[in-house]
Design goal:
Layout: H1 6-15, H2 20-39, H3 47-59, H4 65-82, H5 106-114, H6 119-131, H7 135-139, E1 146-147, E2 152-155, E3 164-167, H8 170-183, H9 200-214, H10 222-235, H11 240-247, H12 252-255, H13 263-267
Antiparallel strand pairs: 1-2, 2-3
Length: 289
Amino acid sequence: YTSHQIPRFKKWMQTKRYSDSTVVTYCSLVVFFCKYLVKRNCTELSPMMVSRFNYEFIVFPQKSIYYQNQAINAIKQYFEYCGVELEIGEIERPKKEKKLPVILSMDEVQRIISCAYNLRHKTLLSLIYSGGFRLSEALHLKLADIDSDRMLIHIKAAKGRKDRYTLLSQKALAILREYYRVYTPKVYLFEAANGKNYSPRAVQNVVKNAVTRAGIAKKITPHSLRHSFATHLLENGTDIRYIQNLLGHSSPKTTMIYTHVSEMAVQKIRNPFDMIETLDHNPFHNNKI
């Protein structure tokens, strides 16, 4: 469990086809864990050492539940790579917080796209929303993935290493054609100056700046456009099974979260206060004195 094994651990995860972001995250967490072991002069791995690390550097500093689960997963993978049989499953792992996603109205989506700095940014945001893309999926799109004959977009090797198709909007296609004439991308649809695809951080900044210019106070990320796409489909009567396929969810339970944020379902509920007969403002109206 020495730090010189980290490059080999990285290659091991790459051969198991973990995503680039997972490899980077797990390696950094394992380096952190190894430094902790050295600092504690640990000569033998034990569940107790993992438990202490979990408390001292995650629970006590009040790191997020997501970070905690990532750290434990990274350590488990590192043990597997090292061939160390150590049961750390008994470490208490909190359940993830069930937060509802932030949803934009269609008007807010239009305002954000209109406030994009240039045509490239406008095209990128239009595509993420109209196809319900995860950020990594949009950034890995290639010219050949756009099927304008069938009005579909082919998403390859997405989360879970699965392919799927999503919708190609007529309006998005018109913007794409204009974008292609101006920027003439070669391989990736959205290329940086060095010819490689855009970085996630660059797109996050694009969204942040557009939201600010649009005067929207909600906490919006690129993923908010994907959430909004799914919710708007549901509100317009699209069967949730089709939405599940378009988003690439392996379980319908994941897609069901949009039923909790859809205005369509909420607006159909009749408020019981409205069922009460008209209230008389004079409390003595029916009293005989």
